[in-house]
Design a protein that fits this description.
The structure holds 3 protein chains of 3 kinds. By secondary structure, chain A is an alpha+beta fold. Chain A has helices at about 1-25, 55-60, 75-80, 85-90, 145-150, and strands spanning about 45-50, 110-115, 120-125, 130-135, 160-170, 170-180, 185, 195, 200-210, 215-225, 230-235, 235-240. The longest helix of chain C is centred in the C-terminal third of the chain and has 23 residues, at about 290-310. Classes of the chains: A alpha+beta, B alpha+beta, C alpha/beta. Chains B and C meet through helix 1, helix 2, strand 5 and strand 6 of B and helix 1, helix 2, helix 7, helix 8 and helix 10 of C.
Chain lengths: ~260, ~300, ~350
Amino acid sequence: MRLALTAATVLVLWGVAVPSSLQAQGGAAPAPALAARDSAPIDLTGYWVSYVTENWRYRMVTPPKGEYRRIPVTPAAVPIINAWDPAADARAGNQCKSYGTGNIMSVPGRLHITWQDADTLRIDTDAGTQTRLLRFRLREGSAGQASARAAAPGARTWQGESTANWERAAGGGSLRVTTSNLRAGYLRKNGVPYSERATVSENFDLAPLPDGGQLLLITTTVEDPVYLRAPYVVSPHFKKEPDGSKWDPTPCSSTW
Amino acid sequence: MLIDLVARRAAFALLMVALGAATASAQFDPGGSWAPLATEDVQNDSLPVDYLGLALTDEGRTRALAYDESQKSMIERQCQGWGAAYMVLGPFGLRMSSQVDPVTRGIVSYTIDPWEDWNGMTIWMDGRAHPSENALHTQAGFSTGRWEGGALAVHTTHMKAGFIRKTGVPLTDQATLDWRFFRHGDVLTVLLVARDPVYLAEPEIISKGFRLSQAPLDFRDPCVTGFQPKEPGDSVPHYPPDKNPFIDEFMKFYGLPREAVMGERETLYPEYRKTIKDSYVQPPPCVNSCGAAGNFVRR
Amino acid sequence: MPLPLSDPGRRARVIATIAACAALCTIDRSAVVPLGAAPQTAGAASDAASDATSNATSPGGLEVLEVRPNFFVIAGAGGNIGVQVGEDGVVVVDAGSTARASAVVAAIKRITPKPIRYVIDTGPDADHVGGNEALSQAGETLFPSNRIGGQQRDFTGPVAAILATEGVLQRMTAAGSTPAYAAGAWPTETFHYARKYMFMNGEAIEVLHQPAAHSDSDAIVFFRRSDVVMAGDVLDARQFPVIDVDRGGSIQGEIAALDRLSELAVPSGPIVSREAGTIVVPGHGRLYDQYDVIEYRDMVAIIRDRVRDLIAAGRSLEAVKAAGPAKGYAGRYGNAGGAWTTDRFVEAVYRSLVKEKP
């Protein structure tokens, strides 16, 4: 009798807990009933400033035309790299070509991250005045679903279409974002290209700084069957700022 | 009473559930061979007097400018190798494994295997304290770790004096390192925050990506000192203050602002771009090594 | 209260909360390090660094580090103190300050009940010889009879011997010496030649006179089997080396002493990653190995070169100081105030070099 009671209790509780833990690991599970904002394991909102300690020469200034060091390009990309013409880009209205999702997080500037609605995380950048909308798995009838449906199907933009998921772990987690439907852009200011077929995968992670403060690390992987022979992975990082007092919107530039 | 019996059994069963649930999503397995992704700054071909992306104090800058890379060829330094920070500064991958307590089956430590000129790292996960301030310092330092928010957080102390850049930007033996290991799929991102109270005006933050390798990484043989006699005299290669012959080389080749190459703190923030926008002249188009994996410049 | 099972998300949170509480009640708290905890400074560790330096803090504020199974270092009593133990008794290198002497004796007694046989002084400074008398009195001579070979031997009685270079005895007994030392603190055995040796506790011990370095009476003590070198004040891990020019010290002798230390010490090789090798114990500060000595030596040599260049350019002492020849190192090893400032170090280097000029 006692054994049966114990077994029954364990079975009931496991039956409850296991689907929950699977859901916590991001496995195949039904869409969360809670909004993404309300179930966020980490808080990405606020103002963040680029802290440029890596790839300085490719980010803080415009590198020489024709240099594509450390980017695993295909042979098809090389003539495009060597033909880079920023004046032509500007005339064609393509000043923002290096501000697309493939590179925007590496452009030195500030991010302002907010919740546009309960299921859409919004990232504004002051450099190039870009806006990214990261849409979570949509609850039926949610505002995010409505806005996603309202967007023109197939429209390619610099920022593309981004789908977001929380990856949860005990005590925290990470934001996973996948972006496609991009306009062709540049991985660097000096015209290293990515095509419309590129996809960008990002993980947003937080880390405390030892002397206080927070760091946002965005591990970014660009894959492009046309211009990249291997995934291009970078991990720009940002320091949290207390407010937007240093927010400084500047338009896109094809040269700077 | 039946209710009492059920309550006690339920508590025990909840305990079983708790143990299972707590383990399921607490951490990832960092073990395996991780091949380096050399898409961000790689140190194997760095140039002299390149302090871009660093926030140096005056002491740090002076010390860096005095450094002559010929010191590496001193007999007594031939197998000195590099310190713990070289994990993300150097070109090699990582081979990580775990060590398990045979009784408790808990993870006691993670080990990152040494390369030819880097002594590896042991990350103690069993809660042990760092050694006394009077203890010996090693190249690898002493590291303890814990799981935090899905990442492996590591703190390293007790390192020897070394470098945060191979070309001679120094770290004292008072430097400390804080690491985060993030795993997403088959990509491991290692974040390093290096602090030095003497040479760094702000922490140096470096991140490096690695991809899980199906084939085990094969590391080169470690350094073995071949020639050990004492050199006559007591000279140490170094440059007198303000007389480093390479002070302008990198700067001029890429048309970079002096304060950025000298590692001034304000050059790490986006507002610095405004101050140099009108004065910066883009260098001529690349003609050599335009797609190289490192910083290599063929002159 | 029934669990709210209808809402899966809420159900998950409730389960997780209960699970967390249950887990916290069952895991071993001693294995949990609080998030953001600062490193602690007590307790044993077993990495390469801490393999060599398991430590415990003894009452009295001293720190006892186990460097080898038979060799300990006591820190916090003035200068670092080396303690070699074995069947023959205890050999102590340096005695610390007078004020901490009783604590040192107590710390040694906690390490071993064997008596102190020798106190070896590496130099004459008060923070190295202040405890001479107390440690000697607490010890016991190897040879209780005070007639050996028909000769009267110990006039001090059956206490531990105190061994040092002749210069140490001269300094300690000089008229007007500060502080004044009682006879019981004076070295009982002295030497003026290059090397004195003994064999104690199964190993050779060399006491090597290092002329004109920190002073004119420095000694380095090398425990061969333990592979530990007690460096005395020719090596100071906290600051630039103290060079007492007025008492015979010089920058050239200091660099020669550091060179000698780097030759005595053997680094970890061919298995470099093991990070084992000779331990060099500075007169003050943390433990060193050969690479640390080389780093320190190179720093001193570079500053010497800078001062030498300035002298060759005709600069006065004040001009040399103003030029900041220690810049780049002063942040780590220099002092703006206190007994040994950066300026005093530069001055000592200057005076040594000017003395040397033909």
